[in-house]
Amino acid sequence: MLTVKVLTRVLFTLYLLTLLWLVLFKISYDIPAILADYQTRSVNLIPFVTWGQTGVSETATNLITFIPFGLLLGMNFRSAAMWRLLLIVFGFSVVVETLQFVLAIGTTDITDVVTNTVGGLVGLVVYRLASKIISTKILDGVITVIGLILFVAFLLLRGLVFQVRY
């Protein structure tokens, strides 16, 4: 029987791989085509300067997308200091944004790094606060079950409903 601890690690790994797939390849199955055809390379180092063009929706999407990162990171590394976990979220975001530039598959934007990091922070804080109210065993079990259900639903929706074409 799989333990909750093993399932949380599996879920965290699946989440990170899916997050990379989402951010780098826009959930496309045709990764070679993305790498060959997209070829857009730009850098924005002024936070929130493109807000008028992208609007609040992209900022909110980035924030919401990284909340599970904080939750799952908090679950898997409960005893680590908050600032260390936040540094991991920040580092991951910087690496992903840098990869977008290196692979020429999108815009490298400091706003994304900021909103991704804030989303991770929200997840970390929510997990820490919830674990003070609810036993971590129950909390981890609930988050893991909900996370696995959402992951399967995401894959089904992606495969059956939302046919992304690039």
Folded structure, characterized:
The structure is a single chain. With 166 residues, the chain is mostly helical. The protein has one domain. A two-stranded parallel sheet has the order 1-2. α3 packs across α4 and α4 runs antiparallel to α5. The protein is globular, with a radius of gyration of 17 Å. The model has no long low-confidence stretch (mean pLDDT 86).
Number of domains: 1
Rg is: 17 Å
The helix/strand class is: mainly alpha
- Order of helices and strands, N to C? HHEHHEHH
- What proportion of the residues is helical, as a percent range? over 70%
Strand order of the largest sheet: 1-2
Estimate the strand proportion.
Answer: 5-15%
Overall pLDDT: 86
How far apart are the termini?
41 Å
The total beta strand count reads 2
Shape: globular
Low-confidence stretches: none
**How is the main sheet built?**
2 strands, parallel
List the defining traits of the structure above:
6 helices; two-stranded parallel ribbon; 166 residues; 6% strand; mainly alpha
How would you sum up this structure in a few lines?
The protein contains 6 helices and 2 strands; from the N terminus they run H-H-E-H-H-E-H-H.
Q: Which helices and strands occur, and which strands form pairs?
A:
Blueprint: H1 4-25, H2 31-37, E1 40-44, H3 51-76, H4 82-102, E2 105-109, H5 110-133, H6 136-161
Parallel strand pairs: 1-2
